[in-house]
Amino acid sequence: MKKGELGKWGEDEAAAYLRKRGYKILDRNFKREISRFLKSEVDIVAEKKGVICFTEVKALSGEGFISPEEHVTKGKLRKVAKTGESWLVKNRVALDSPWQVDVVSIVKRPGKEAIIRHFKNVASWE
Fold first, then answer.
1. Of 20, 62, 66, 122, which one has the greatest count of Cβ atoms within 10 A?
2. The domain 3-119 is classified under which CATH number: 3.20.20.70, 3.30.360.10, 3.90.1150.10, 3.40.1350.10?
3. What is the pTM of this model?
């Protein structure tokens, strides 16, 4: 499976996982243009119990030494948060509405069920 295909598969798996747990998917692959050459994206925007979750999905194939969530840097989480704020503005949602940044980590294992982990409210901005 190519990297782009793995990413799309991972996002589809994450969306299905979230739906099964009572989340409503509001948007996918929301992009914000930072500059002419630089863009940022939120993989999944979901909502549960009035809290909007801007979700970064990280999928890897096979079981390695580094888990998918370890590939998500603080810088990436900051970009997701800023892009999430852009989503709120575009969709006319008050900026003081409850929201958080989540990470869904997926390991695709050949011939076995994927391992999915959901890390909630992972970023702190202090």
1. 122
2. 3.40.1350.10
3. 0.90
